[in-house]
Structures are given as structure tokens and as C-alpha cells.
Amino acid sequence: MYNHLYVDISQCDYLVDTIPAETSVEDPVEPFYGKRKEWKKLYCQPFLDAGKTKFPARAFYFGGEKVWLDYCLYVKNR
Asked: Sorted alphabetically, which keywords does the UniProt record give (predicted)?
């Protein structure tokens, strides 16, 4: 449906991707590019996983267990 909005990954020099929890299953539509050998990790920052963190912990700094992902910038290996 939105394929016309995307650039082919072979044309990219940089990529931003999240590193999912180990229990996540790779989706063929949106693979884990960061786990592929052709990409080198440059920088990562913790990113709150809103889908796995309950509301009170998302809304307030204190209370509840927060689930974090790594949000990373990758560069293509040459």
C-alpha cells in the first residue's frame, strides 16, 4: 500500500533501526537490518518500547517497569 513511499535499501548509505527484544520474530516485510553483516552500527540510544511498557510507567518517570529498545544509526559497510 505504501511501497511507493520507500527507497530500495540497496540505495541507502545510512539506516536507522531499532534492535528488538530477543524474543521478537523477524518480519520479512521489515527485517532486522542491524543484524545483517552489510551494516555497521555507529550510534545507539535507548528508546522506550511503548507497546510493552504499561501506561503509568510510560506517562511518568517513576513507577512501573519500563521496557527499552536500542534505536541505532547504521552505515553500510563498503
From this structure: Glycosyltransferase, Transferase
